[in-house]
Structures are given as structure tokens and as C-alpha cells.
Design a protein that fits this description.
heterodimer, A: four-stranded antiparallel β-sheet, about 0% helix, about 45% strand, B: mainly beta, seven-stranded mixed β-sheet
Chain lengths: ~110, ~120
């Protein structure tokens, strides 16, 4: 079971770029890295997924170094609506029962 | 869009009552999951199911049981509710198929907040 380690919380001002780093030292060859976002009183929702190097979508970028033992979620120019808990998970295609959520990183965006 | 619907957003029950939490997904997903979420503990997996009538224990199955009689429906049962089961319960579904869905991507419901008095 590939567990992850993230900072418990982060604060950022509106308009800044936010980088949240996740450590996953025992990631397996078949594992993908996936980030979820959770707003209060809602279930988590998918943000971005990658295997290696860099992935970018309309919401975020994901940077993964060659050894894949860590990853960084980058949120460009955050707004107040980005205040949420962000979870980093690793897992493979076989199923999602081996996904370990942990406590995530609580991002607070300040006006 | 994938939709995972949980039957109740808020429930209040008394200690010893039997509690049913229902979850329905509309995307023909094979996999379904029940998590509980508590402050400071994150999401913890209670039970999961890969197919109809199949179930597997997660990390914290004690005090819970599940039922999956139809592919789209996964029920969580608290046989005798206790105060330490006061929590937010989240249902999720996923498909192991490659191509259309991302590896292990979970689709969550809105959650059911249970209070046991």
C-alpha cells in the first residue's frame, strides 16, 4: 500500500501560484499519481493524474521527477474558491481499494 | 456525467439503532466503496466491492456490514449504531476498465453526515 505524506496546511494570497508537494517513497512501477480536491460538505473530486514528468490541464499542473518518489501539484493564480483540502494518492489500474487518502493538505486562500 | 447518489445527506440516530446508508451510481461501474471521514484522520476505507454480491473489508470494517445485490447499488449497514460511528460517510465508484476512465479514478457522492446520540 503506497502511502503518501503531505503538509497538513498551507496559506496563500489570491493571485499567487501554489505548489503542494507530496512524498511517496514506496511508489510501485504500475502506480499512477492522482490528486483530488475536496470542498466542505462535498465528496472529493478528481483534479489531475500523471505517471511521470509533467501533466497540465485547465485546472492545474503536476510535476513528477524521474525517481517518482514525490510529486508537486501546482495551482496557478489561486482564487478564494480554491480553498479546499487537496489529497495526493498513488495507485494502479487494477482497482481503487489500494488508494490511501490520508489527511490531505488544507489550502486556505486569503484575500 | 457520472453521478453517485447517497440517499441521505444528514441522519440522526440513537445508540443501538440499525442504520442503512444507500448509494447508487449510474455509470455501470464495477467497483464501489464506502469511506468514513473524520477530522484529523482523513478518509478511511470501510468496505469495497468489485462485483455484485462480492465484498471485501477495508481498513476499518468493524461495526459495519455491506450489501451489493445490484451492480448500481451499494449499501452500508450499521447493525447497532454507536456514538463513535458519528461521522461523514462517503460512497464512491470506479471502473477498472482502461481507456475511458483514468487509472483508479474515484467518483464520490455528496456524503452522508451521521450523528449517533
Amino acid at each position: 500500500l503506497a502511502k503518501t505524506t503531505q503538509p497538513i496546511s498551507m496559506d496563500s494570497y489570491e493571485g499567487q501560484e501554489v505548489n503542494i508537494t507530496c512524498s511517496h517513497n514506496n511508489i510501485a512501477t504500475n502506480d499512477y499519481i492522482t490528486w483530488y480536491q475536496q470542498f466542505p460538505s462535498q465528496g472529493p473530486r478528481f483534479i489531475i493524474q500523471g505517471y511521470k514528468t509533467k501533466v497540465t490541464n485547465e485546472v492545474a499542473s503536476l510535476f513528477i521527477p524521474a525517481d517518482r518518489k514525490s510529486s508537486t501539484l501546482s495551482l496557478p493564480r489561486v482564487s478564494l474558491s480554491d480553498t479546499a483540502v487537496y489529497y495526493c494518492l498513488v495507485g494502479d489500474r487494477a482497482g481503487a481499494n489500494n488508494l490511501f487518502f490520508g489527511t490531505g493538505t488544507r489550502l486556505t486562500v486569503i484575500p | 456525467d457520472v453521478k453517485v447518489t447517497q440517499s441521505s445527506r444528514y441522519l440522526v440516530k440513537r445508540t443501538g439503532e440499525k442504520v442503512f446508508l444507500e448509494c447508487v451510481q449510474d455509470m455501470d461501474h464495477e467497483n464501489m466503496f464506502w469511506y468514513r471521514q473524520d477530522p484529523g484522520l482523513g478518509l478511511r476505507l470501510i468496505y469495497f466491492s468489485y462485483d455484485v454480491k462480492m465484498k471485501e473489508k477495508g481498513d476499518i470494517p468493524e461495526g459495519y456490514s455491506v450489501s451489493r445485490e445490484k451492480k448500481e447499488r451499494f449499501s452500508l449497514i450499521l447493525e447497532s449504531a454507536s456514538t463513535n460511528q458519528t461521522s461523514m460517510y462517503l460512497c464512491a465508484s470506479s471502473s477498472p476498465k482502461t481507456g475511458r476512465y483514468r487509472a483508479g479514478e474515484l467518483f464520490f457522492g455528496e456524503g452522508s453526515r451521521l450523528t449517533v446520540l
